[in-house]
Amino acid sequence: MDDVREVIVIGSGPAGYTxxxxxxxxxxxxxxxxxxxxxxxxxxxxxxxxxFPGFPAGIDGPDLMDNMRAQAERFGAEMIDDDIVSVDLTxxxxxxxxxxxxxxxxxxxxxxxxxxxxxxxxxxxPGVFAAGDVVDHTYRQAITAAGSGCQAALDAERYLxxxxxxxxxAASVTVAA
Length: 177
Hints:
Layout: E1 4-5, E2 7-10, H1 14-25, E3 31-33, H2 61-74, E4 78-80, E5 84-88, E6 94-98, E7 103-106, E8 109-111, E9 128-130, H3 142-162, H4 165-168, E10 173-176
Helix pairs in contact: 1-2, 1-3
């Protein structure tokens, strides 16, 4: 993969899948990195989720995560179940390297909660947004994580739209969830 992506999403919980879904619907070609072992976040270890809207009888955590992933893929999000070994968020082009030593570049990066935030989803690094449990130490619910993933995706979309054509050719965004 030697092309520069508009968006890279790191994390496959409710925030990550929601961010991938919303950026895919905005035609930003998101690439989501889960992990090689723990795909779907902590909900994959939950037997029954009884309070997620849309499932009046409840749903098993792994089934909910499978549904969220399938919906994001339906809109064109690409998923890689591999571990990240390095991330460089310092330049205009963000770089992520996975355990297969494939370097992926993005012009917008969503990286959930590894750097300080100056607003709800925006971090102190331009083009890097945070969402999910890593930034929410109070509620830690699937629905609040999904909501913050949506917010991060919309903030990333607006960030990219605000770039001039000249700058857009050399900038990137990352969303972590």
